[in-house]
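Message: Just now I want nothing more than another pair of eyes on a protein record. I am handing you a single protein, as its sequence and its fold in token form. As I understand it, each token names a local backbone shape. Take your time, and here it is.
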Amino acid sequence: MLPLRSRPAAPKHSTRPGLNCSSISWLWRVSSSSRTCCITAGMVAMASSVSGIRGDRAAVFVVGYVALRFFAGLVWQHGKVVMDWPLSQMAVGALPWLVSLWVAAPTRYWLWAAGIALDVLVLFTASGAHALERARKRLNEAVHHGRRAARLPTLEPAYANVPHLAERLGLYVIIVLGEGVIQLVSSTADAHWDLSVVAVAVGAFTLLVALWVLSLLHGFAGVPRLTATALPTRFVMLLHCLVTAVLAALAAGLGAAIEHAQDHVPPGVRWLLCGSIAAFFAISFIAGMAARRSLLIAGVPALVAPLLLGLLGTGLNVGWFVWILTLVVVGQAASTLVARS
């Protein structure tokens, strides 16, 4: 949920009997609680259907997502227009998902990708100022066609409360990193304990801690290298989405690495781990450039190293492989700490 701030409006008194400011406030709180419950239910439906998303649970996932997008757009009071995150009030990207209910795989997955592409397009092209202007035109047309002004909302621009938003996004990154720890614990508990498993588990945990340092202690809103004023809110949200997706993929790779702790690293696991770390530092590079930091501190060496390891690390044991990746990330975190001290 996007925390907002807006200019305070002058209090208005209703001319209808029995409908005053306190009753309107009570109705808004009730409806807000209902929307929050619906959003939570949608998130639960999506999470519980992930394991069977390629089968009969795909419809549950899609319905949960579409409902989530619908109710998320109703979070704000009537008449509020979000200026710096207009995508939050536009559900055009959910339409391909809705159509996919009547389409079989693999075409269904292409529709999902089309929905995400539409959202990204809206993210880069939509303007809050234009949305507010269109809303004012529709309001004027309603008045022109005889709608009573007392029943029409008062349009008001709303903006993200950036410090509050950054705190929430940072907490979400902590949750995703915690999922990585859960993956490690679950895979370690099921494995036969020996020195190889312990080495991989300790290295993987150290890797997650180093990523936490880069994202939370030396970043903004969970995005490594980013600063509070470097990018507009919409681009901060995009980078945050990419960071959490990369961390989720990395967590899956670390869990698989423990399962193969006594073997050479399989090609799929190797590229999942190397690709995740390289993508993380690619995002760090973009954020560092936006914050006008040097190429070295922005993470170019750490971006190249995982790719070289993916190409040249075919014969490495999983333990050595994980620890090399860990040293790359720890070295980048240490260099950032030294540069800032």
Notes: Residues 21-49 form the longest helix (29 residues). Residues 43 and 64 are 7 Å apart (CA to CA).
